[in-house]
Amino acid sequence: MRIVVVGAGSWGTAVACLLRDNGHEVTLAARDAAQADAMNTTGRNPRYVQAADLAGIVAAPIPDAPVVDAELVVVAVPSRVFGDVVSELPGDSPVVSLTKGLDPTTGARLSTLVRNRPVAVLSGPTIADEIVRGLPAAAVVASDDLELAVRVQVAVHSVLFRVYVSDDVVGVELCAAAKNVIALAAGGADGLSLGDNSKAALVARGLAEMRRLAESAGARPDTFAGLAGMGDLIVTSWSPSGRNRRAGELIARGAKPDEAAAEIGMVVEGLTTAPVLRDLAHRLEIEVPITEGVCAVLEGAPLTDLVTTLMSRAPTTE
Amino acid sequence: MRIVVVGAGSWGTAVACLLRDNGHEVTLAARDAAQADAMNTTGRNPRYVQAADLAGIVAAPIPDAPVVDAELVVVAVPSRVFGDVVSELPGDSPVVSLTKGLDPTTGARLSTLVRNRPVAVLSGPTIADEIVRGLPAAAVVASDDLELAVRVQVAVHSVLFRVYVSDDVVGVELCAAAKNVIALAAGGADGLSLGDNSKAALVARGLAEMRRLAESAGARPDTFAGLAGMGDLIVTSWSPSGRNRRAGELIARGAKPDEAAAEIGMVVEGLTTAPVLRDLAHRLEIEVPITEGVCAVLEGAPLTDLVTTLMSRAPTTE
Fold first, then answer.
1. What is the torsional sign of CA B116, B118, B124, B129?
2. Relative orientation angle of helices B169-191 and B289-298, to the nearest 10 degrees
3. In what order do the strands lie in the sheet with B72-75?
4. Interface contact flag, B197 A315, Cβ < 8 Å
5. If residue B59 lies in a helix (H) or strand (E), which one and from where to where?
6. What would the DSSP string read from start to end of B109-126?
7. Burial of residue A206 (number of CB atoms within 10 Å: 0-12, 13-18, 19+)
8. Does residue A309 register a pLDDT over 90?
9. pLDDT of residue A40
10. In terms of Cα–Cα distance, which of A126, A150, A249 is closest to B204?
């Protein structure tokens, strides 16, 4: 299959390698032309997942990538540019979104910004560093177009990367966005050295919050117990490489959000998504105390106040 | 309140301290008389959670503990002796079970072995080492007798240990038993260095397996997303101190199950529970592939065969 992967961050690069390993003809399209040149010259991504060997993958700047002729366009760009990038794609090839976030301007799910072509989303517990090291993983592909979902499944699935099909696009996409916000809070618990018990309690309450929000938006409860929900939330909240977790840890230790993002050097989607998710919750009239707390801290409130408030609420029924 | 905690392992000792901190009159009853003597002499438990200061707690051998006069009897003994211990308790004071397992002979939930007195169960992500270090945590108390559940909640709840009430005894108790089996598998993933992605996928599938089993036994789905389900499963599967996780890791690295248990030096409930849970699943006609895999490995099958089998199944719908 001819496939263009748009976005040469760590996850786009890792998925390009998975597709290349499955025998597809892969172009990895970078927003930065110099980065594309470097990938073609050195066979490595100069910025992300340097362990990944790009042999057999052609890199190109986005405008030069063969998008019109592609049978599949995989989009892995930050949420803040997702809308612009997909609206500028020529042709009508189907799109698979790898981006985990919401449109920062409208709060829309990113797949809804893909117009006039079939769209699917791929999500799950997939820390890119592990994938390029050849470690096994599993993910979910969701689409309203089940024929497309199965085509993506067949294209990506391998003995090391299991892909399951789902028809719950709303659930998979909202899980993918919300888990980064909960992971910021989990990182905050790490930064305050609160221990694994309270972090696990926080993450369990966080999943409940994600589920309340997404169910009211039409998602299926099952999705939250699955790979794209609980699976991805756990790995994002516990993996030392999880960038949202790490950002929360740095912020809890005194860094400003932009300082944390700068130290991590990759897009920290949770920082963008938190206020967008809070606004969505307000519109849906759903209580999201952890997301509210994350937003308050990002806006300058002391984290210790938040912990004290959460722990001193009256005891209730679970 | 006058309370006797029966069982001076790490969790019984930690809960005795929580109750003492809340102003209760606490006796910590040990199965081993020498251990009780040592606790009274030194103010420390000689075997478990040595960091815990037992000041204000009276230790006693079980037959000498004031069980008849207690307003609450907290039982924290290994599952294999739970039935004998509770059947020998004098009086009719209510019992709170802290034990996470099933009756090894009959597969019964442990609380059903408590006859002729009210019973509640307390569960959640509560690694004892963290509790005695004063780190915050949260748990669930479940009972068919809601008045008892609330009494236990009030007795145990504090600013550092939040307690929620539930009426789903079946769900809380089956979660508590099954999570140790899934944690053995998660430890196996650690022992094989499979990475956090696949471990998170395994644990998410493990929670689905726990839920299928317990729902068919009458539990509520909500419990699995809560503290006693997902919360406890995560901490048991990720905490370096988790003894079931650690046992799985040692077994994956070549130890026999009894060697792993000996090295850990504490009861590893998952080793006892796995075959009992499998038999329960067979009786209920529920598929539990992870539990089956754990049992096969405990019975001597090579772990690598299991991983290969799980990863090479045909791709499906989630």
1. negative
2. 60
3. B58-61, B25-30, B2-6, B72-75, B95-97, B119-123, B137-142, B161-166
4. no
5. strand B58-61
6. BGGGG--SS-EEEEESS-
7. buried
8. no
9. 98
10. A126
CA A157 remoteness from chain centre:
19
| Cβ atoms A166, A141 nearer than 8 A | yes
Contacts of A207 (CB under 8 A, 6+ apart): A182, A224, A229, A230, A233, B225, B230
**Is residue B49 a contact partner of residue B306, using CB atoms and an 8 Å limit?**
no
B176, containing H or E segment: helix B169-191
Give B68-77 pLDDT, tens digit per residue.
Answer: 999 999 999 9
> How many residues does this entry show for chain B?
318
Phi, psi of B219 (to 5 degrees): -80, 165
User: In chain A, what residues touch B155 (CB-CB under 8 Å)?
Assistant: none
pLDDT in tens, B277-318: 999 999 999 999 999 999 999 999 887 777 677 666 666 677
Whose tokens are 């005894």? That residue is B169
What residues of chain B lie within 8 A of the CB of A51, using their CB? Answer: none
Residue with tokens 């756990």, as numbered in its chain: A234
Q: Are A105 and A129 in contact (CB under 8 A)?
A: no
Distances (CA, A) of A127 to A134, A184, A231: 12, 16, 11
Suggest the residue from B49, B163, B318 to mutate for an interface test with chain A (most A CBs closer than 10 A): B318
Cβ neighbours of residue A190 under 8 Å, at least 6 residues apart?
A199, A245, A248, A249, A252
The partner residue sitting opposite B130, judged by closest CB among A162, A197, A231, is A197
Here the ipTM equals 0.92
Is A311's CB within 8 Å of B195's CB?
Answer: no
Report the alpha-carbon distance of residue A217 to residue A211 in Å, rounded.
10
Contacts 24+ apart (CB under 8 A), A310-313: A311/B136, A311/B159, A311/B160, A311/B162, A312/B159, A313/B162
How far, in Å, CA of B169 to CA of B112, rounded? 10
Contact criterion met (CB < 8 Å) for A204 and B226: yes
Across chain A, the runs of DSSP E, i.e. the strands, are 2-6, 25-30, 58-61, 72-75, 95-97, 119-123, 137-142, 161-166
Mean pLDDT of A287-296: 94
One-letter amino acid of A21 = D
Nearest of B245, B92, B117, B233 to residue B174 by alpha carbon:
B233
Question: What is the pTM (predicted TM-score) of this model?
Answer: 0.92
The two counts, helices (H) then strands (E), for chain A are 14, 8
Specify the long-range contacts of residues B20-25, CB closer than 8 Å, at least 24 apart.
Answer: B20/B56, B20/B57, B21/B158, B22/B155, B22/B156, B22/B157, B22/B158, B24/B155, B25/B1
- Of B106, B162, B199, B189, give the one whose Cα is nearest residue A197: B162
CA torsion sign for A314, B1, B4, B8 is positive
Strands B119-123 and A95-97: unpaired
- Using CA atoms, how far residue B297 sits from B104, B198, B256, in Å, is 19, 18, 10
A195: tokens are: 């221990």
Q: Is residue A237 within 8 Å of B231, Cβ to Cβ?
A: no
Taking every pair of Cα atoms in chain A, the longest distance, rounded to a whole number of angstroms, is: 61
Q: With CA atoms as reference, report the closest residue to B294 among B199, B134, B142, B185.
A: B185
Shortest distance between the Cα of A219 and any Cα of chain B, in A, equals 15
For residue B61 the two structure tokens come to 């051998």
Amino acid at position B285, single letter: E
pLDDT of residue B314: 63
